[in-house]
Amino acid sequence: MKARFMATTSAAVLAISLLASGCGSAGDTKKDNKPAQAATNANAVQINNETADDYKAIIDEYRKYVIAECDLFVTETEAFVQAIKAGEIDKAKAIYAPARMHYERIEPIAEALGDFDPNIDARENDVEAAEWRGYHKLEKALWEQGSTEGMEETADRLLEDVKLLRAKVETVDIEVSMLATGAVELLNEVSATKVTGEEERYSRTDLYDFVANVEGAEKIYELLKSKLKDQDAELTGEIEQRFKEINEALASHKSGEGYVSYDDLKGEDTRKLSQALDALAEPLSRMGAVLGV
Amino acid sequence: MTHNQESGNDQDSVLRKPVSRRDLLRMAGVGGLGLMLGAGGMGGFLQAGRSLNANSSPARNTGDQVPFYGLQQSGIITPPQDFLCFAAFAIRSKKLADVRALFQKWTAAAAEMTQGRMIGEWNEQHNSPPSDTGEAEGLSPSKVTITFGVGPSFFDDRFGLSGKRPAELRDLPAFNGDQLSEDWCGGDIGIQVCANDMQVAFHAIRNLARIARGIAVLIWTQEGFQRTAGADPTAQTPRNLLGFKDGTGNPDVTDKKAMAKTVWVQQIEGPAWMENGSYMVTRRIRMRLEVWDRTQLSEQEATFGRYRSSGAPLGASKEFDPLGLDRVREDGEPVIPVNSHVRLAHGDGSVQILRRSYSYSSGIDRRTGQMDSGLFFVSYQRSIAKQFIPMQQRLSQSDKLNEYIVHVGSAVFACFPGVREGGYIGETLF
Q1: In a 3-state reduction of DSSP, which class is residue A262?
Q2: Which segments carry the region annotation Disordered (chain B) (predicted)?
Q3: Residue among B8, B35, B122 minimizing CB distance to A35
Q4: I want to staple B68 with a disulfide (CB 3.0 to 4.6 A). Which of A78, A159, B114, B366 is the partner?
Q5: Do A43 and B34 touch (CB under 8 A)?
Q6: What pLDDT shows up at residue A51?
Q7: Phi, psi (deg, nearest 5) at residue B146
């Protein structure tokens, strides 16, 4: 689940250079039938630069989205932390899942920025017991212990971490390839823990995370859609359709402003959600290559 | 940019050729990835690929392929390979166009896999998930066959094909003693993959399921095995997990007349889209191994009506001796008991099926701690109603073997006729 963004970028350069050279020489018959000369991938670099220029507006747009989500994440975490410190259990419980959605939408960015993910989002046993902090520790206090006693320090620490994340995303270097892989990683997050109800052990609010991860992936897709369509309209249509299907499946589990508890899902519900997710992630995983990033 | 590779036909076809990168590097007489960055490098690869293919003789594959294309699908009268991977799918899409496109993609992938080739065009691109999952790369095709069929539920009102459902194709009636679980029953589509290597067989099912994502989902799978050719070089009749030879009474698959009579749907009975197809029945039959293992040999042999060691009918000496159902002992009782498996399966001898079953072992039954093992029965027949059902009715009513087995899964599929190169599986129906 850790970022592989830089590696992906260099691989993209390689792939583009291969294709570029492949196009140029396929018509030749004999003279190329020998080992290649040393690498001259200047044209590939150029292509990559052009591509990067094309994508600048998209990246700027995505950065705005990340910052906006982070702003809301800070605001709602502040309210959450206040409620915790005031011992207002019900209020804190009500804020918990919706607040986290802002984080879940941009999780790959947080993961790319160092220790934010373990500090904010680690579950018990993900890290050494002494180092465990963040949202899930407070989740356990709220739902398991039914008390926030002794949680003041954890609450303050969480808010510090969240504010620091907000500060850092301002300058994060976002590559186009991060977008393509990030969209799939968001869905892989769902596959790994949320669809099985392991993410929100105590609050059972996994569906909120599920929805937010899908929304985060869909935001990236929306930003890349017109470019993707130029390259492969069929794939674009397929992804579009699959987003529609999973959103419909998720909408059927809405309850008021939020979503039903994971415990209210039947076995066949989770299986359907999981399969709809796989159905979406498969074509989405081809997005980067089709865009050549 | 990236899609130029798919637009040029010549180039396209070259890129599809069955040449691994390793082969290319070997052909080019060099190693090392630095080469790949060169502008002329890909031209070299393409050229190498072409020339390799021109004098193509993929030596490791020779004799290890079963042709995919043909009048009939392979995997039916193909001599049984060592391993089975069976998969049943439910279609989630409601559009026939999606189903048609799926079968077209499946056909292309199956044709590649049966020749031991990687599927798809995205196997060397670093910024893409590879289109072939890769675990069969470099492996012999291992006589892999991939056989496609559709179940009765395929002909409900979803795709406008209800008028084309063969009268033959309906869920089997309930038989005495059935304890069917939906975990092993039915399916809109059934795919039988057989190969002499389990990894090769699994690879096929895995990739077909991947290709289907968004259109169809797996609802159950079953792996199966037999003794391998290595363990039994003279290819004796295989033994089931009860220790008895199973399949002695099968018709001769090299006898075209017998196959036309027993296995292949003929023009006269229709529907037209099933001509040269065949109906498949699968039954997951759990064996109560613990009970069987404490049963005396004489009782075991009376149950089957054959000797365990030789496979010969009781009272005879060789496996393929006539059954001799008329023979009686001194006390007037038939030598082959009236409720023995072989007698009931044989009936009056006028009706046969082609059995193509595999043993299975799927861990233990968590409730009892007993082994969940038995027979994944597969049979092919021209008519389920005239061949399989009467036989199974006789067996379910009186077979002495029923003390030791229980049917827990059941499915029927209409397996399409074969396909010519350029066509796709199911085209006669869609």
Answers
A1: helix
A2: 229-249
A3: B35
A4: B114
A5: no
A6: 60
A7: -130, 115
- Range B196-220 average pLDDT: 97
Average pLDDT of the residues of chain B: 87
Question: What integer pLDDT is reported at residue A42 of this predicted model?
Answer: 41
- Residue A17 makes CB contacts below 8 A (sequence gap 6+) with A39, A41, A43, A44, B37, B39
Q: Does domain A175-252+259-293 have CATH number 3.90.1150.10?
A: no
- Residues in A closer than 8 angstroms to B124, CB to CB, are 18
CATH 1.20.1420.20 in chain A is located at: 55-174, 175-252+259-293
- Contact A22/B92, CB-based, under 8 Å? no
Instruction: Provide the H-helix boundaries in chain A.
Output: 5-25, 42-85, 89-105, 107-112, 116-121, 135-139, 152-169, 176-189, 206-231, 233-251, 267-284, 287-291
Q: Give one word for A101, left, alpha or beta, with left for phi > 0 and alpha for psi -120 to 50.
A: alpha
Contact list, B36 vs chain A (CB under 8 Å): 14, 18, 36, 39
Residue-wise pLDDT for A127-186, tens only, equals: 999 999 999 999 999 999 999 999 999 999 999 999 999 999 998 889 898 899 999 999
Q: Which tokens is A235 given?
A: 């794939």
- For residue B28, which residues of chain A lie inside 8 Å, CB to CB? 34-36
Find all residues with CB under 8 Å of B274, minimum gap 6, and list them. Answer: B166, B265, B414, B416, B417, B428
Element (H, E) at B377: strand B371-381
Residue percentage of chain A with pLDDT more than 70:
82
CATH entry 1.20.1420.20 includes domain A55-174: yes
Q: Please state, in angstroms and as integers, the Cα–Cα distance from residue A206 to each residue in A91, A212, A253, following that order.
A: 19, 10, 12
